Known about the structure:
The structure holds two protein chains of two kinds.
Chain A: H1 2-14, H2 16-53, E1 58-62, E2 83-84, H3 87-91, E3 96-107, E4 119-124, E5 136-139, E6 148-151, E7 162-165, E8 168-176, H4 182-186, E9 188-191, H5 192-196, E10 216-217, E11 219-224, H6 230-240, E12 244-248, H7 251-292, H8 294-302, H9 307-350, H10 360-391, H11 394-398
Parallel strand pairs in A: 4-9, 6-8
Antiparallel strand pairs in A: 1-11, 1-12, 2-10, 3-4, 3-11, 5-8, 6-9, 7-8
Helix pairs in contact in A: 1-9, 2-7, 2-9, 2-10, 7-10, 9-10
Chain B: E1 2-13, E2 16-28, E3 33-37, H1 44-51, E4 59-64, E5 67-68, H2 74-84, E6 85-88, H3 100-113, H4 117-129, H5 145-157, E7 163-167, H6 175-192, E8 195-200, H7 203-206, E9 211-216, E10 219-221
Parallel strand pairs in B: 3-8, 3-9, 6-7, 7-8
Antiparallel strand pairs in B: 1-2, 1-4, 4-5, 9-10
Amino acid sequence: MRLLASLALQNLGRRKARSLLLIMAVAVASGVVFTGATLMRSIDSSMAVGFTRLGADMMAVPEGALTNITAALLTVEPTDLVLDQDLFARAGIASVSRAAPQKIARVEHSGIGSHHDSVDLIGFDPAIDFTVRPWLVEKLNRDMRAGDVILGAARDTVLGSELLIFGKPHTVYGRLGKTGVGTHERGVFMTFDTLEALAGSVHGPSGPPAVLQKGKVSGFLVELAPGATPLQARFAILSTLKGVKVVTGDSTMSGIRQGLAALLNGILALMVLMFASTALMVSVLFSAIVTERRGELGLLKAIGARRGQIVGMMVTEAVIATGAGGLLGVALGVLVMRLYERSLVYYLENIGVPFVWLDGPRIVVVAAAAVVMASIIGALGSLYPAWRASRRDPYDLVRGEG
Amino acid sequence: MLSCRGLRKDYVTERGAVAAVAGIDLEIAAGRYAAIIGRSGSGKSSLMAMIGGLSRPSQGQVTVDGTDIWSLSENALAAFRNKRIGYVFQFASLLPTLRLVDNVALPAMLGGGGRSSATYARATALLGQMGLGEHLDAYPSEVSAGEQRRAVIARALINEPALILADEPTSDLDEQTEIEIMDELLAVNRERGTTLVLVTHNLALAEQAEQIVHIAHGMIVP
Lengths: 402, 222
């Protein structure tokens, strides 16, 4: 192996200009893929934050419930009617990507605010939620757990402090930003278990509200599946689920979100094509290199090199060149992203548009994947010409045939 | 030592099949110096390539030291070429990126010996015997054509083969260098007892051989 690597390196060094051009070509392709993939994932995350802040695409509530339509669907509305919490999970509607259940209880004498203030206690599932957590402007440096509450922007309580709700201690886990949606701004958000634990303290005209029972919710915030239209989803929900009313939000945002997702997928397809064309280029180049070196390969076979050694030497040579190209591409990509960060990202953040970079370990994974992909391209591109040459008789190769 | 039976090599061309070697039976005893002579295109190089395991015959059998070489698997034949046969081609057949000592050591390394100090000691000694002791670290482009050819002979000897096949080894050299190279090859034949098969169209070189095989139109002529 050391001998093959040594021969491969010497061969690369023999044609420095050609080797450098190959390395540069692969570096450009790898750099584009690395930068593109990192930026795409970052834009995707930023879009996820930005668009979820705009709320759900639609809301599914019990038929007969009164709803106050706002520009953004961020929380369900208080109602006496309830739905089963696993309604959407059981139905599995294709045009629905996510359906986040919420339960809401409007209560008085809770101990929050002045004595007669009504407070919306909102239960949500942090694992499925996509309208509460994106609005977190500050939170404790740990996962949310039972007994924690998140306060809407209108409530000013110190993070980590104790908040008594019906005399029971809760910890202020986080605070939300201003949304302009009353329920959302005044709400006190908590997990289903935390809210259900308060059922004994909340008294309606005929006992605790039905929504505080386990497994019951006030409604669902719904996000459309990629490609699905609000009309399709509405029809699918109404025809599948009984006793449900669908409230539709601003369909323009759904269109923009889906359009941008399609655009990102298009860019991904272009990057795949670019990598494929690089693989073809490497293959063509190595066909030419093998043709040029037929005499040398024939000589190596004549003095005892096995087929595997011939293929191994050529593939090693290609992997070294394309792997180096991959590393150089990643380095170039890092430079490009630095420029991007200092220009466009800086501008976006100045105008209040959040840009969420992919975290460090994931960037390292993408970089490693780009280098590995570049090396694989070298291996695949050189494999066929090398294998074809290795099958020839040494005498044919020495004479310049094959 | 070397035996060929019904050896034939056909090449397919646009005008149909052409027989480069058209059925040759040949015996060469161990330790002999044999010369295969004939005009250009007579089939002597094709014959040598089949004898040396470099070109698969269309028909026939080649036995070297009792081994039917063309019945061997691909890897076994590569190992046989590596251990039992040394080649001196009609062109400068050194790898340009390797020093002379690396070129000479290469067959031993390919054969599994690795980059050992024993291999390099042997390569150094062989280059010394060929008068190239001062050029161990030189690259092929830094030495003369005659010195390159001596290095090729040293490389052919690195695994102490039983058979040396030399295909027009002096065709591109001047008269004096040709004599020196032939002296080296004959010395290997006489002093080491290595069988030497020389392909040439130079009758003067062939006159020193113990056995002369005259080829014309792919067949042995008396």
